[in-house]
Amino acid sequence: MGARNASAARVVTRSSRGAESRHNNTLLTAPNQQRSYNKSTRSHAMRIAFIGLGNMGGPMATNLVKAGHDVCVFDLSEQAMQTLEDAGASRAASAEAVTQEAEVVVSMLPAGAHVKGLYLGKDGAPGLLDTLSGNPLIIDASTIAPDDSRTVGAAAAERGFAFVDAPVSGGVGGAVAGTLSFIVGGSDEGFERAKPVLEAMGKNIFHAGETGAGQVAKICNNMLLGILMSGTAEALALGVENGLDPAVLSEVMKQSSGGNWALNGYNPWPGVMEKAPASNGYQGGFHTDLMAKDLGLAWELALGSKSTVPMGSQARNLFALHAANGNGGLDFSSIQRLYRRDED
Asked: What is the pLDDT of residue 44?
């Protein structure tokens, strides 16, 4: 599968500073559109094209601007581009235009079909790999199937471009705070070139192995996250149905062997954790649809390698059911509603 032994994985941790798009359509290109870079006086500034400004991509691009990089953005949402322009970025009218003169191209899109359409083209239209000039580094931060990353990476290599897959962990909060973890797949050279860019958006930068390895590691992580969140919601519901206060039970489990990230930092029961999406009507955060998608990727990965993932498969079924019941646009911690008798 191209990934090196876990003991060989490299990690860069940044101790202090100086999270997936909304799109459902293939990004468009407009060959005659020109991009416009802002001028920066910082010597380390790079010209960065950023494509995909959703809940994760928008804050990530903003942090690149804050770090002094010369950022030009493209998104299908006018509002998203205006927000980044207000933050100091410039904008372009198409995906092709935004990459002109770029030293680095960053994409943050919802699915493999969007990534392949962007770089390889679709329906007879050329992809970015056929229109890029110079020697830009391509960083795809989307969470997609490893084989999709390998396909795009191989096509980029054929044209002489360096490509790394760099899916993220840390959610919207981490994207805003610039504390994301990036799990990178690609060559040593590509990883070294990507680090200065990723360090402006994240705290932990891992090199998991060759192209596609970042996706494998991210999929494993999110499968575990889905299992933890559904298990946490189940335990809380059981306790409440038997007379316990959810806040008290949460604290007991947090300080005991049941403590985990979902419980400790992202509690799914409303009112227990003030800043958690559960206490804001499950708005924002990481959508149920995206968790269901990632668990589907885990299932497909397991199918291909003939791996046994009974708990991952059960989590996939639970989140798929929850999404089908009309909760796809809510934060994935809303899986709590599936277990509550007072929720229909």
From this structure: 75
